[in-house]
UniProtKB/TrEMBL annotation, chain A:
Keywords: ATP-binding, Lyase, Nucleotide-binding. This is Phosphonate C-P lyase system protein PhnK. GO terms for biological process: organic phosphonate catabolic process. InterPro entries: AAA+_ATPase, ABC_transporter-like_ATP-bd, ABC_transporter-like_CS, P-loop_NTPase, PhnK. Gene3D superfamilies: P-loop containing nucleotide triphosphate hydrolases (3.40.50.300). Pfam families: ABC_tran. It comes from Oceanibaculum pacificum. Residues 5-250 form the ABC transporter domain. PROSITE patterns: ABC_TRANSPORTER_1, ABC_TRANSPORTER_2.
UniProtKB/TrEMBL annotation, chain B:
GO terms for biological process: organic phosphonate metabolic process. This is Carbon-phosphorus lyase complex subunit PhnI. The keyword Lyase applies. InterPro entries: PhnI. Keywords: Lyase. One of its GO terms (molecular function) is lyase activity.
TrEMBL record, chain C:
Pfam families: PhnJ. The lineage of its organism: Bacteria, Pseudomonadati, Pseudomonadota, Alphaproteobacteria, Rhodospirillales. GO terms for molecular function: 4 iron, 4 sulfur cluster binding; alpha-D-ribose 1-methylphosphonate 5-phosphate C-P-lyase activity; metal ion binding. Transmembrane segments: none annotated. This is Alpha-D-ribose 1-methylphosphonate 5-phosphate C-P lyase. InterPro entries: PhnJ. Its EC number is 4.7.1.1.
Length: 256, 368, 287
């Protein structure tokens, strides 16, 4: 199988401060990679670099473009990169307000990507939006309501629908469940797992919650002070952590 | 029979005449002279020159008279005149150290070379209406000092500069200074263009924005490093001569705010500046300008830029009162056509809503 | 040439006119693209047609015949004011007749009488940026134009249909020029949009306060944005013009009393007058 994403020697500095350093990994289609670490460990910086929201200071991020194979995303022109970001990629933000257009309806939020790539049939756009609302378990009767009238969990599900409508092959998620009640979290995780499995989407999920990665991620990267300290299959890392930091993380957060 | 309204031309002419008559007011009261406006309403003249971007006391006084004391209208008149003037070139930069100082105060040092010079200021007056002024024969006199002030008073920011405590202010030789009256504003705007825009900007707008930074909307810890007022020679290099000649003397107010800067990963903490300069004596404006200049530097200094006064596009696009006044008042122009289009649309929406309601009623009845 | 004392022909100095002409040429070369220009302070307030006036001043010659309309009429205050400004500073001929004019400066309307080759329309533009209501930042909107990212414009139209059942923009209805740039047609009613498409006349747009010039060259495709299943539609009235009986012109609503009495007459006074002169009558005339 072809690699979907190939990251080599990726670093990002803020002046003399290190955001992340020397990160390297491959991601295959349909694979879910979890990135864990405490706040300040560089995991969000890494995600922002990977998803082309932040230009790295060094290193290479190559993505398997549909037409030209593995390509350094920073060698693409800005229009090409922006097109990639809103078609073949998805980005689910921690705060739904950063990922949704709060002043337009749920339907318009889901339809926006379709319209951005040229859809011009109102009826079809609406049907597709309804279809996606159903998939993320939002009542289609709410299609014309503003996201502000939705609960936190619904807003996150709407954000997911808005991203998946163009059938991306790679989705980045930044703490998708934090800030939600425990019961709402469980339902959202379940939904993400189902969708990702069914659609075969590859995912990079950043979280401080080991429970989230245990449920979703095939593989796990543990970050500390901008560096990857441990990397392996999720169960392996969580059940038999090698690095002292991972051991601490696992013992302090995962009550048995 | 209905006839479309005609006669706009005559109505406009009549309106202009009526305006002229109202401007003059009761003819039994003597007409105000330009010299009187210049001498006795001198701060109005100063403001009109500053925001009108033209140093000419007589024309500014005329604009104030023609505008019936409406200063924004007077600024507009002066700007519209200025734009028709031929350009010979740009004057040499002013060196405010060479200023014949009439007022110079610092809030950062108790005493400093040259001393604190209060000069003419409202600052220490009790704001009590002075009924003696109502009479028309006032001739107050102030005592003259024994000797003139020494020239070449150093700027407070230069004193700070000797210790390396404040950022240096270096001209950028490689790039010509921008000119908003020739080229449109483009973003991100460099500091030269920002300062020009602020100097032309509305005093009230800048005052409120500067005030907002003091109240916490983009705080930048300002100290009034120095405010100075006085006269300066303007020099110009004619192409055919190749050396500078003095072409006149102008009065300016300069304000340098000194602001704390916390430092970053690459730079140690130091003081930074906000700069304000106006024609004549416009102290409030110069201070507000300096506050806003500094807050617009947030991004360049790596500070969080979230407050309105830190937002270049917001500040610079809305600071000009000639633009703002024109666009606000253009709402007086006829909009019949657009309003008709809205009428048609609103009626259609109401019809749709009424039809939907009727249909729902039918539906409910059928369901019963 | 009879011109006002102390001012150049058509007010602006020749150097400024050349600068504006260069901007116009660039605008014509890139249809629908907003060219920044060094807009000058004019003796009329910003928002009152300073952009249109500067464009007209830059292209006006002594042999031109100028028509100025506001709301479709030659006799509205703003039109009178601008026309007299050019009479005073340029002294060229003026007309009320659309057919006779070589340059037509307008605010909010396109004449009903079809334009012909060689004529130039000059539009006064208050807000040139069609994306402004969706994105207030100039830096971002310029990027969106540069990359032709217009999805958000469609989102707005989608919202209209979702909430009202149809697109609710009634004037300043956005268009796509030559299949590339999305452009504000200035606040003309959408009724006038189709007249821009493939027009034999050159159309120039000037925004003084916002310092932008843009253009539609003759015979250029101009499409109003819409959806396949909700196509662009123009206003229609149940009535015909009460004066000339025209059933296909844009109508002004005239309030005739304070009890809800109304009548409808052509907004384009020249067109209406021409029809009456040719013997057409409306209800009002017949009664």
């Amino acid at each position: 199988m072809n690699k979907l994403l190939q990251v080599t020697d990726l670093s990002k500095n803020y002046g003399s401060r290190i955001g992340c350093e020397g990160v390297a990994f491959d991601l295959y289609p349909g694979e879910v990679l979890g990135i864990v670490g405490e706040s300040g460990s560089g995991k969000t910086t890494l995600l922002r670099c990977l998803s082309a929201q932040l230009e790295p200071s060094a290193g290479r991020i190559a993505y398997d473009m549909r037409t030209q194979g593995l390509t350094d995303i920073w060698s693409l022109s800005e229009p090409e990169r922006r097109m990639l970001m809103r078609t073949d990629w998805g980005i689910v933000h921690q705060n739904a307000r950063d990922g949704l257009r709060m002043e337009v309806s749920a339907g318009a939020n889901v339809g926006e990507r379709l319209m951005a790539v040229g859809a011009r049939h109102y009826g079809n756009i609406r049907t597709e939006a309804e279809d996606w609302l159903t998939k993320v378990e939002i009542d289609t009767g709410r299609i014309d309501d503003l996201p502000a009238t939705f609960s936190g969990g619904m807003q996150q599900r709407l954000q997911i629908a808005r991203n998946l409508v163009t059938q991306p092959r790679l989705v980045f998620m930044d703490e998708p469940t934090s800030g939600l009640d425990v019961s709402v979290q469980a339902r959202l995780l379940d939904l993400i797992r189902t969708l990702v499995n069914r659609l075969g989407i590859a995912c990079v999920i950043v979280t401080h919650d080991l429970g989230v990665v245990r449920l979703l991620a095939h593989r796990l990267m543990v970050m500390r002070r901008g560096r990857v300290v441990e990397h392996g299959l999720t169960d392996q890392v969580l059940d038999d952590p090698q690095h002292p930091y991972t051991q601490l993380l696992v013992s302090s957060i995962l009550p048995v | 029979m209905y006839v479309a309204v005609k006669g706009g031309e005559r109505a406009i002419e009549n309106s202009r005449r009526l305006l002229a008559e109202e401007r003059r007011g009761d003819t039994s009261v003597p007409e105000v002279t330009l010299a009187q406006i210049d001498e006795q309403l001198s701060l109005a003249v100063d403001r009109v020159m500053t925001e009108g971007s033209l140093y000419d006391r007589e024309l500014a006084a005329l604009a104030v008279k023609q505008a019936r004391g409406d200063l924004i209208e007077a600024i507009f008149l002066l700007r519209a005149y200025r734009t028709t003037l031929p350009r010979f070139g740009y004057a040499e930069p002013l060196d405010t150290v060479a200023m014949q100082v009439r007022r110079r105060i610092s809030a950062t040092y108790k005493d400093l070379p040259g001393g604190q010079v209060l000069g003419p200021t409202f600052d220490y007056t009790l704001r009590l209406l002075d009924f003696d002024l109502a009479a028309a024969d006032n001739a107050p006199e102030a005592e003259a000092a024994d000797a003139p002030l020494e020239g070449g008073m150093p700027r407070v920011t230069d004193i700070l500069g000797h210790g390396g405590l404040i950022e240096p202010e270096e001209p950028r030789d490689e790039q010509e200074v921008g000119d908003l009256t020739r080229d449109p504003l483009r973003f991100p705007a460099e500091r030269d263009v920002r300062l020009q825009s602020l100097a032309r900007g509305d005093e009230g707008f800048l005052l409120s924005l500067g005030y907002s930074t003091q109240r916490g909307y983009g705080k930048n810890h300002p100290f009034a490093g120095e405010i100075r007022l006085g006269e300066l020679a303007v020099e110009f290099v004619p192409e055919e001569l190749g050396f500078p000649i003095e072409i006149g003397e102008i009065t300016v107010t300069e304000c340098q705010m000194v602001n704390q800067f916390q430092g970053s990963a690459t730079e140690p903490a130091k003081f930074t500046r906000g700069y304000g300069l106006t024609f004549g004596h416009c102290e409030r404006k110069a201070m507000a300008m300096a506050l806003v200049d500094r807050s617009l530097r947030a991004e360049e200094l790596g500070e969080q830029a979230k407050a309105p006064a830190q937002d270049q596009e917001f500040v610079l696009y809305h600071a000009d009162n000639v633009e703002a006044s024109g666009f606000t008042q253009h709402l007086k122009l006829p909009h019949y056509v657009d309003f008709q289009a809205e009428l048609v649309m609103v009626r259609r929406m109401r019809e749709t809503a009424a039809n939907n309601a009727a249909r729902n009623d039918d539906f409910e009845e059928a369901a019963d | 040439m009879s011109t006002a004392q102390g001012y150049n022909f058509a007010y602006l100095d020749e150097q400024t006119k050349r600068m504006i002409r260069r901007a116009i040429l660039k605008a014509v070369a890139i249809p629908g693209y907003q060219v920044p220009f060094g807009s000058r302070e004019m003796p009329l307030p910003y928002g009152w047609g300073t952009g249109g006036i500067q464009v007209t001043a830059a292209i006006l010659g002594p042999d031109d015949t100028l028509k100025v309309i506001d709301q479709g009429a030659d006799d509205t205050t703003n039109a009178v004011n601008i026309r007299s400004f050019f009479q005073k500073t340029a002294g060229m001929a003026t007309t009320d007749r659309t057919r006779e004019a070589s340059i037509i400066q307008t605010r909010h309307r396109i004449p009903e009488t079809p334009l012909v080759e060689g004529q130039i329309m000059v539009y006064q533009v208050p807000i040139p940026e069609p994306l402004r209501w969706l994105e207030p930042r100039e830096g971002e909107t310029r990027k969106m134009h540069g990359l032709a990212e217009y999805g958000v414009m469609q989102v707005k139209l989608y919202e209209d249909i979702a909430h009202y059942g149809h697109i609710s923009t009634a004037y300043d209805y956005p268009v796509r020029v030559n299949g590339r740039y999305v452009m504000s047609p200035s606040p003309i009613p959408k009724f006038d949009n189709p007249k821009m498409d493939n027009s034999p006349a050159l159309q120039l747009f000037g925004a003084g306060r916002e310092k932008r010039i843009y253009a539609i060259p003759p015979y250029t495709r101009v499409e109003s944005l819409d959806f396949e299943d909700h196509p662009f539609q123009i206003e229609s009235w149940d009535q015909a013009c009460a004066i000339c009986g025209s059933a296909d012109s844009y109508l002004d609503e005239i309030v005739t009393d304070d009890k809800g009495g109304r009548m409808f007459v052509c907004s384009d006074t020249d067109y209406c007058g021409e029809r009456v002169a040719a013997g057409h009558t409306g209800e009002e005339q017949a009664a």
